[in-house]
Amino acid sequence: DKAMFHWQPKPHVLMVFLIFTNFLNYLDRGIIPGAPTEIDAFIIKCGFDSPDTMLGLLQSAFIVGMSLLMPIFANLTHTRPPFLLVAIGLSVWIVAAILSGFARVAESYYMLLCARMLSGVGEASFQVVAAPYIQDNAGNRLGFWLGMFYTSIPVGTCVGYGYGAIIAGNIGWEYCFFIEALMMTPVILCFYGLPLDIANPKKEVVSIAFPGGASSQDWVEDTDSLQRNFLGEDITSLKQGNFPGAWEGASS
């Protein structure tokens, strides 16, 4: 399988892209609470008498798309290239950002609400892949890379508040979404360019002895058969210590 264009980054380079993407995701979440006065004025202009309630819905709307689609994306990583799913999901995220900006032009609160829900779809594809990839590829610097990844959450949110306030107060809050969509575009192109068979490294199996002579390997073999019968899925990759099927399935 070939990607649209090819580049083969080292794991730490790809992890930098993941951290920056996470930063942009949370910057996006900070825009609306960072510009409450301007958003309230927009809501009132759309004909609502209780802007605070409508503002709260906008801020939490992404959870709808994220909650509904995250299990679906998580399941798809077993059979589809994980980073291709990330690229597709973040493409939806860009569309959501652009629609959020055009909602002001159309003076449509419901368009903005739907766009915020749609942004959660894009974030869902990213979140199910990013942290597992870092965990599998960071090696002995796992703490550092996971720390940087999760630090981008409060940093992105904090910057998003200031970013939303400054842009909304000077040129209009819709440009907050247009600009972030522009910033995300080259990142998505890089994800599209990754090899479709990119996978995590193999891990050594650790067998733990239990009282009575049983071992953890015996337990895994027993539960392997049980779960195949119950779920209809082969979890042999668990015995190899891999992230459950996501990367191995993608390379087949």
Automatic annotation (TrEMBL):
TM ranges: 12-27, 57-76, 83-103, 142-166, 172-194
Residues covered by the Major facilitator superfamily (MFS) profile domain: 14-252
Domain of life, source organism: Eukaryota
Gene Ontology terms for molecular function: transmembrane transporter activity
Main localization of the protein described in the UniProt heading: membrane
Topology class, membrane: Multi-pass membrane protein
Protein name per the record: Major facilitator superfamily (MFS) profile domain-containing protein
Species of origin: Octactis speculum
